Predict the 3D structure of the following.
Amino acid sequence: MNETLTVLKERRSCRKFKPDMIKEEELAAVLEAGTYAATGKGRQSPIIIAVTDKELRDRISEENRKIGGWDEGFDPFYGAPVILIVLAQKDVPTHVYDGSLVMGNLMNAAQSLGLGNIWIHRAKEEFASDFGREILQKLGIEGEYEGIGHCALGYAAEPAKAAAPRKEHYVYRI
Ligand SMILES: Cc1cc2nc3c(=O)[nH]c(=O)nc-3n(C[C@H](O)[C@H](O)[C@H](O)COP(=O)(O)O)c2cc1C
């Protein structure tokens, strides 16, 4: 198997991160990979907000926890020091597909560099609220964006688990 296929097959969600910040070149490489995802009609509808500021990261975690309905003290980002938030322009018909593909690129790029990564949900609710809108406003981002997902990123604090067996009848060939 070539290296790309190995990365695609071995990517697993990480649910325990070290607090250490990743290297700038690692972050830059993951982000760049995200920007090269295919998009409908090549419109590049998604944007990525890379959060490395601890205070903002903790506020997002708290917001996400509340939306998810977990008990106080739970960190839905599992201690990851970096959160990459993917949003996409609502007026582009393919925006959810575009943003999801960016998420895939981010996770697979992270895997290729040996970084722990996981898709964390509820970005849609976060960015439909005043909390999220304020973040966009502060960055000078105008227009209507839908939150697609968060890619939590960092150094894994536990070994990757084995993949669940693939279900039967996943693939049909004619
Ligand atoms: C759309 C989507 C949303 C997800 N949201 C969460 C989440 O909020 N919290 C979480 O712990 N894992 C989340 N995951 C990770 C999945 O639980 C994980 O991908 C799945 O269990 C398969 O495991 P694997 O990624 O190791 O192959 C999400 C994955 C996807 C694709």
Summary: The first strand starts at residue 46 and ends at 51. Residues 26 and 113 are 7 Å apart (CA to CA). The mean pLDDT is 98. The radius of gyration is 16 Å.
